[in-house]
Amino acid sequence: MTSLPLPPGQLGLPLIGETPSFLLDPRFAAKRQRRYGNFFKTHILGSPTVVFIGPEGCEFLLSSHMQHFAWKGGWPQNFQELLGESLFLQDGETHRRNRRLMMPAFHGKALEGYFSTMMNLAEQYQQDWAQQDELTVFPAMKQFTFEVASVLLVGSPPGAPIDQLSQWFTDLTNGLFAPPLRWRWLPYGRALRARDRLLTYIEEMIQTRQANPTQDVLGLLLQTEDEAGNRLSQEEIKVQTLLMLFAGHETTTSLLTSLMMMLGQHPAVLQQAREEQDALAATGTLTLDQLKQMPYLDQVLKETERLYPPVGGGFRQVIKPFEFKGYRVPAGWLALYRINETNRAAYAAPDRFDPDRFSPGRAEHRPSDYSLVSFGGGPRVCLGLAFAKMEMKIFAALLLRRYTWRLAANQDLSMKPIPTLRPASGLKLSLARR
């Protein structure tokens, strides 16, 4: 392997490499893909980095050769300090053990038990939004998804300070890509302070759940044990809950905002999605069983996810040297799989919004399980995927059945990628009852 060349690409300037372009240019990876192909090197965030694009590379990294990569060393220090030793940054047996302990809270009967809360909160928020002359969707959606996450993941009671908690999470999120300067008035300093306040709140909720066991995710985590009788410690539960709150609303906010934007811009797709919902509504109110009978809405959500993944990529640390496509990559490098470009690599007319590409007759995603990687893939696919998809389907189904909306004119709908993808304007629209 040592005789093989390094991947094509360039390392940029001394010390900083190509980091400024990586952070500021949304087309950073696409430009290099055109020049070097789907596998290239760069130097970002203080480390030489190899970039994977496309289903073959993602399968290599996420599944078939995942033993060459570690999560913990792959993410910038900001992520490690702000999100702690959570599932997100764990590897090996520690990760497998904790994932097994957390899995029951996100599947099966537990998931079914979350349906009514998701539905009630979606109805409440949509009714409130329809009373406003103009709604800015992204911040409003963030509050909705955070309340869902706060109630179902942590068991926050009615009347909890959702606005304050949501603001702390906004401060924490803004610190993930900020310069790690710890002064209190700078973004990273505010993020550290927000993290501490959130952990204090979570600790208080743990003590409440220990005194009064419940069936929210936090309550289930406190009760769950493996076949050997092992349980998560209180410190482990605190950091895992912080991660769940972060992951449980940031990505969903981004995708639901993009969904409303796409439906507002594509009236034919909106009409077909609405007709499917009207036919189901004629048989009764929204139910868990009805969620399984929405093939066109499934296609629309997949196409939104494909074109507008909330996060542009995922990092790993190379812990064992490897060979790929006739090139060598040493241990100690970073590896980055690009979600945005991979979600376009296997599709016809990839920049066109076309939900029918996921129809049974076309099924453009079928050749590979790694042609759509917004939630990762392989053994470490997002633990909360089923939770997020149920929440998004409930919200979208109710919205289509009951409301119309019109996008405001003369707004900036260019997409800003950091910290999660969103329209520059926040997506301004007016919502009205049908």
Key phrases:
434 residues, alpha+beta, Cytochrome p450, three-stranded antiparallel sheet, heme, Cyt_P450_E_grp-IV, monooxygenase activity, Cyt_P450_sf, iron
Would you kindly provide a written description of the structure presented here, covering whatever features stand out?
The chain is an alpha+beta fold. It has one domain (19-433): Cytochrome p450, CATH 1.10.630. 50% of the residues lie in helices and 11% in strands. The protein has helices at 19-24, 28-36, 55-64, 77-83, 92-102, 108-112, 115-130, 137-154, 162-174, 187-211, 217-223, 234-265, 267-281, 288-291, 295-307, 339-345, 385-402, and strands at residues 39-44, 47-52, 69-70, 135-136, 313-318, 322-324, 327-329, 334-338, 403-407, 415-416, 422-423, 428-433. The chain has a five-stranded mixed sheet. It has a three-stranded antiparallel sheet with strand order 4-12-9. Helix 4 packs parallel to helix 10 (187-211) and helix 12 (234-265) packs parallel to helix 17 (385-402). The protein is globular and about 65 Å long. The protein starts with 18 loop residues before the first helix and ends with a strand. The relative contact order is 0.16.
